[in-house]
Amino acid sequence: MDVDTGIDDALALVYLLARPDIRIQAITCTAGNVGARQVALNNLALLELCGRQGIEVAIGAEVPLEIPLVTTEETHGPQGIGYAELPPPVQQISARHAVDVWVEEVRAHPGEITGLVTGPLTNFALALRREPELPRLLKGLVIMGGSYYYQGNTTPTAEWNTSVDPHAAKEVFAAYRGLPEDKLPIVCALETTERIEMQPEHLRRLSEAAGAPEPELVLPEQPEGLRSPSGNPLVACLSDALRFYFEFHRLYDQGYVAHVHDAFAACVAAGRTPFTTRPATVDVETDSPLLIGTTVADFRGLWGLPPNARIVSDNNPEHCFDELISSIGALGRAVGARSPGT
Predict the structure, then answer these.
(1) Over pLDDT 70: what percentage of the chain?
(2) How many Å apart are CA 135 and CA 121, to the nearest integer?
(3) Angle at 114 between CA 111 and CA 118, to 5 degrees
(4) Do residues 291 and 169 touch, judged by C-beta distance below 8 A?
(5) pLDDT of residue 166
(6) CB of 2 within 8 A of CB of 73?
(7) What does pTM read for this prediction?
(8) Which of the 8 DSSP states describes residue 324?
């Protein structure tokens, strides 16, 4: 996983930790939603909350390739996980740089590792400069990013992850041009990730699946910043994080909901939710001040260039939420069983 944790990155990480059939080889951190060091601390704290110490967490790029860093604490909270507060982690950040982790792990396990990038593509672009064969050495790559003939969520035409480092995204897509279709990255863009719209009812169901003694009620009529009363630490953490996200979306007239983009990408990487894709040739605008970060997809071969991506064109939000709730609920029961008073 390469992440900029982030509320929806946190949900994606917890989901993958909940899956007994998934092994997380390493977590690499890039600046995006918050700074890279805070991203790493968030990941370590979440690992310890879920009882999964021992997974390597490495810091990578702390700034984009060519433009100044912009973070988004107003979207994800001052520490990146909304209102949630977790104890300082015991485990230390890895001494390895994220680029070394990408290159060394994939070289050591050719054809076995699926990469999941839910933040800006800076680390992966730098890793490609070091090892251009990464696209062939990986089993696959899933990217959350971009918007294709669909409004952006950062500028009118640009999605957040791509807008933070458009030059990195451009390099990554260029590296995949001409590869066999089964090697092309699966791209989860806004037109399908915004369909994964979490509502208070989903959070209530999650708390029930986790065995919480009382239903977790995060409701639009409640005061902003209200903290979870749950005795289950995982339920409380996710509830406090997602309340912040609900409030943010409401502030921007999207309703009391949360678009959990990265959780969908994690389900895709795990092969646990249905989706369809369309091959396309993707490029990223890096020069225009008006359109920087805009992703463009040629589905019809008008550029005369081979495809370099498989863009998710359809998904099933209900199935995705059933998968998230059942998996995270099972982990929540285990976390609750280890916690006094739950």
Answers:
(1) 99
(2) 14
(3) 155
(4) no
(5) 98
(6) no
(7) 0.97
(8) H
